[in-house]
Design goal:
The complex is a heterodimer of chains A (about 325) and B (about 240). Chain A has about 325 residues and is mainly beta. Chain A has 2 helices and 25 strands. Chain A has a domain of about 100 residues.
Chain lengths: ~325, ~240
């Protein structure tokens, strides 16, 4: 092939490779608004597509920064679609509401990314269809809901409910006075540091991992995923772990005595702990077989119920 | 025997109320005298007490947060509408499927309550020693709820985006597999409590996911038709 022919071929390949990138024109528009919340107010945000970051700070201002985005091959169409995105902010009764309004939310080819600073004592209700939600340093109640996206909550003091369908839920260094629910359908639930009176963590096909949590009443449930719990048990705590086909693994410090009842239909049960007597208040010795384990350890102050169908169950000492 | 005369005191008695707590009400003392000599009432009290104990160990069920969020937003939305639209539009609102889903869940609970009540009446009529406990046909109630919700979910399926639909379909398959495995285990070992619990768990999970699917479809669909047409045109 001649030099000229090689140059032409190279140019054609270059143009072809560059086409998809050039095919989309992104147009953006910034939105900025400051509102006010008195003590213990509520910030309520409903978005459609786009990521949301909410941070609690000192002060009484709510600072809303948003970037609207539309990508289309035709720049004029992109600009017209961008103009259709409306962000409405209303302030009333110690409540700031933000709503992203787009025509036909399900098919709209644009997004809005939010970065919001709120007074740290404010409660937060945040909801989106597609996009991740990240909340940190929120001292008021937090409720977050997304269909397709992850939810991450760190330094939240009154965690209430986190829910998504296809993403992961991650809780770090959080607390709650009222019962907490965290659920996903296909994602994982990951908890690193949670102090709560009661919590319910669920997934259908994802894994659930909990470490360094102090929860008085914990219910963990998945159909297909694995369940891992590592740390201490609360005295008089009640723990329930259910998985149909996943494995259940508990790594306990052994500082808190507990009563255990573990059963699997077709998996195996294994334990590092020695149970020297039967269940508290019941007669007879501890019972351990390949698929069942029943007994009390220490003062048996906590109650642990583990149930799998085809998964394995293991209790290990930290 | 006039056992029925004391029916209204049964609940209080099972809750621990005694004649000594109600000295002014002779009926409590009369009931306790009757109970001492009536095997039928003793059996009924024993049965109700065991139900009470079992119920006290049940988990506290937290209603899905989405349920209230949906109701609240629907109320707010309705308040924003003019009065005439409120009167006419209510019947066709997107909230209806969610309400139907909630009604189905309510029917499920009501079904369980009816079964419990029926057993209570049967026990009081049978007399003699307490009968062996029959399994509550909870599976039937779940099946009925699933059938109703499934119909609703199928009708609204198009409102979900394809990716979410795919994820939900895969996860329904996971749950259905768990249901099938539990049923096969029960066929092998009909007395297995573990297999029964696994089956009810899987059915409960399916009901919850169907409820969420219906709520999701209501939340994500919608938008004025003329706006949709404009978006469609600009998308091309």
């Amino acid at each position: 092939m001649s030099y000229a022919a090689r140059v032409v071929v190279a140019a054609l390949v270059g143009v072809t490779l560059a086409l998809p990138a050039a095919a989309q024109n992104e147009v953006t528009e910034r939105f900025s608004k400051t509102a006010h919340l008195d003590q213990n107010g509520t910030f309520d945000l409903t978005n459609v597509i786009g990521d949301i970051v909410i941070t609690g700070t000192t002060g009484r201002d709510v600072t809303i920064e948003a970037v609207k985005r539309v990508q289309r091959p035709n720049p004029r169409a992109a600009r017209m679609l961008l103009a259709m995105i409306d962000i409405q902010v209303t302030e009333q009764a110690n409540r700031v509401e933000v709503r992203t309004i787009v025509p036909r939310p399900r098919n709209f080819p644009g997004s809005v990314d939010f970065t919001v600073m709120i007074p740290e004592d404010a409660s937060v209700i945040v909801k989106t269809i597609t996009g991740s939600i990240r909340a940190s340093n929120v001292k008021g109640e937090l409720r977050a809901d997304t269909v397709a996206g992850n939810i991450s909550a760190s330094g939240v003091r009154k965690l209430a409910a986190l829910k998504c369908v296809t993403g992961d839920v991650e809780i770090t260094d959080a607390g709650a006075e009222d019962p907490v629910t965290a659920s996903t359908v296909s994602g994982n639930v990951i908890v690193r540091g949670l102090r709560a009176r009661a919590a319910q963590l669920t997934s259908v096909s994802g894994n659930i991992h909990i470490e360094d949590a102090l929860i008085e009443r914990l219910m963990v449930k998945t159909v297909q995923g694995n369940l891992d719990y590592a740390g201490d048990l609360a005295r008089s705590g009640r723990y329930e772990f259910n998985s149909h086909s996943g494995d259940i693994r508990l790594i306990l410090s052994g500082n808190t005595g507990f009563e255990v009842l573990a059963n699997t239909f077709s998996g195996m049960v294994r334990s590092d702990f020695t149970f020297n007597r039967g269940r508290a208040g019941a007669e007879g010795a501890a019972a351990q077989g390949p698929r069942t384990l029943r007994g009390a350890f220490g003062d048996a102050s906590a109650m642990v119920a583990l149930r799998a169908f085809s998964g394995n169950i293991s209790l290990a000492r930290r | 025997m006039n056992c029925e005369l004391h029916d209204d005191l049964l609940d209080d008695y099972v809750d621990g109320v005694r004649a000594t707590d109600h000295r002014s009400d002779e009926r409590f003392a009369a009931f306790e005298r009757h109970l001492a000599g009536c095997i039928r009432c003793q059996a009924l009290v024993a049965d109700l007490t065991s139900i009470r104990v079992a119920a006290s160990t049940l988990d506290e069920h937290i209603p899905p947060p989405r349920l209230w969020a949906t109701i609240a937003s629907s109320i707010e939305e309705q308040q924003r509408q003019p009065w005439w639209q409120r009167q006419l539009g209510g019947a066709f609102s997107a909230w209806v499927p969610t309400a139907v889903a909630a009604s189905i869940a309510l029917l499920l609970v009501a079904g369980g309550w009816n079964v419990w009540q029926q057993r209570r009446v049967e026990t009081s009529q049978q007399g003699g020693a307490p009968q062996p406990r029959e399994a509550v046909p909870a599976e039937q109630h779940y099946e009925q709820a699933i059938a109703g919700l499934q119909e609703l979910a199928n009708a609204q399926n198009a409102a979900l985006d394809p990716e979410t639909r795919t994820v939900l379909t895969k996860n329904f398959a996971v749950i259905d597999r768990a249901i099938d495995e539990s049923r096969a285990a029960l066929a092998q070992e009909p007395a297995s409590t573990l297999a029964q619990e696994s089956l009810l768990d899987a059915l409960e999970t399916k009901v919850a996911l169907l409820q969420d699917t219906v709520a999701l479809a209501s939340d994500t669909g919608g938008g004025p038709d003329e706006a949709a047409a404009a978006v469609k045109e600009l998308n091309q």
